[in-house]
Amino acid sequence: MKKPELIVALDVGSGKEAIQLVELLKNEVDIFKVGGQLFSIEGPHIIRDIQARGKRVFLDLKFHDIPNTVSYSTMGAIVSTSSTTINFTTQFPPKNPSLDIPGLFMFTVHTQGGEGMLKAAVEASRKTAKKLNIVPPLVVGVTVLTSENEPNVINTVLTKAKLAKKSGLDGVVVSVQEVRAIRDELGDEFVIVTPGIRPLGESAGDQKRIATPAEAIAAGSNYLVVGRPIVQATNPYKAAKEILKEMES
Ligand code: C5P
Prior knowledge:
The chain is an alpha/beta fold and about 250 residues long.
């Protein structure tokens, strides 16, 4: 298994703030997550701006719709984030794009959308990446949000993870509590992304199924997503360094 990596969730209110964080953390962190909050304010250009700084982007919009819509959303997300030189408003999709930045590293769909929708996302992703001649992004499925804690959540997560694998997804987003069961069932190659990470003593906020960075690593997570404990820290650089130190140890 590859060494686990930290992903910083750029859940902030402006592109300016997001880029300041990327600049501050860029020597320590390689992957940044853009979710609904930042994307709704800034749109795809913020992703291009982050990628232009040599960083990888995880787009977390949790697509959940009919297969046709998810297919076009996927195509749009990949195309609109893969070049700083194309004017997408006059030419979409671009005919002969010259790409100066890598495409998305990873994006989310919601497993609740079912097999047809998940397969549509994977197919659209592969086809679009092939057309643009870029590496296809990892497609990961959100199972049960880490802010939820229903009884028997492990069974629901496992069922959804199996559906994700069967539908061709690269991996899933789950809480640390479900990582071992998924690893045992779906193997070492299946990508596991875990939000709800809280260093000891940090406030959980709205998250319910939380774990420390060390617990996430011990369980076998590939990517640890951390938002507020870093981006809302008085010193985000120090907060990220401490989490990385805990991951290393
Ligand atoms: O601030 P915090 O560390 O709780 O941020 C976690 C991030 O991971 C948020 O951006 C949230 O949208 C995202 N996420 C999550 N649970 C999921 C999928 C994504 O918390 N199941």
